[in-house]
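Lab channel / #folding
Pinned by the channel admin:
"Please post every new chain as: sequence first, then the C-alpha cells as a reply. Keep commentary short and put observations after the output so the thread stays searchable."

First post following the new format, from NK:
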Amino acid sequence: MRLFLLTALTMSAFAANSILNRLAVGAGFSDPGSFAVIRVLSGAVTLAVLVLIQRKSLPLFVPRRWIGAGTLSLYMVGFSMAYLTLDAGLGALILFGVVQMTMFGVSALSALPPARQWLGALVAFGGLAVVLWPTGTVQVDLTGALLMGLAGLGWGFYTLAGRSEPDALAGTGANFVLALPITAGAIWIIGPDFVTTPEGVGLAILSGAVTSGMGYALWYRVVPQLASSVAATVQLSVPIIALFAGVLMLGEAAGTRLLVGAILVVGGIALAVFKPRAI
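Reply from TO:
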C-alpha cells in the first residue's frame, strides 16, 4: 500500500507539470523554451540546497551521471520544442507510446515480462489512445513528432537509469545541475526568442522546484521497487490525471471519451500491477 501511494503521488506530480505548463504556455505567460530552462534551473537549485542541508555532496562525476543528465536534457528539450508544432493530445500519445516501447524493449532483453503485463500495457495504452487520438483532419508535423519521440526515448532511459541510483535525492539533484547548461544551450540554439512574464516565471519555478525536482526524486526512490514494464504502464495514467485535473481546475469539458479511456487505463494498470491471488 505504501508503494502504491508513493507511486500515485509521483504520477500526480507528473500530471501537475502538465497543468502548470499548460497554464504558463497556453495563457501566453511564457514561451516553451523559457519555461523549460527556468524549470530545470529551479529544480537544480532546490535539490542542491536540500542535499547540502543534509550535509551530503552532489555525485556529479560518476559514470552513471552522464546517462541521467543526458537523458533528462533530451526529454526537456524534446518535450518543450515539440509542443511548438504538436497538438497537446497527440504529443502526449507519442511521448508515452515511445516511453512504453523503450522500457518494455529494455525489460525484454533481460527477462520477458509476463503476458499479464503485456496485456495490461496494451489495454492501458488503448485507453490513452481513445482519449487523445486526434479527430477530424489533423496535420502531423514530422519535426515535432520526431522531437517528441526523442523526448519519450530520453524519459524512458532516464527512468531506467534511476533503478541503479543509490541516493534518489542527491542523484536527481546532480542530474538537474548537469542538465541545466545542456538544456539551456540546446533550446537557445534551436528555439525561439526567450519571452516570459512574472506569472510565467512563478509557474515555471513551481514546476521545477516541486513537481519536477521533488517529483523526480520521489520517482527515483520508487522506480527500483517496480518492474520496468510496470513502471512504463503506470505512467500512462499521467495524461488521464492531467485531463481530469483540467476539468476540475481549468473548467475544461469532460466527454464520454475521457471517461471510457480513463476506465481502460485504470483497468490496464491494475491488470499489469496486481497479481491474481491463488485460490
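NK: The CA atoms of residues 32 and 65 lie 26 Å apart.
TO: also worth noting, The two ends are 22 Å apart (CA to CA).
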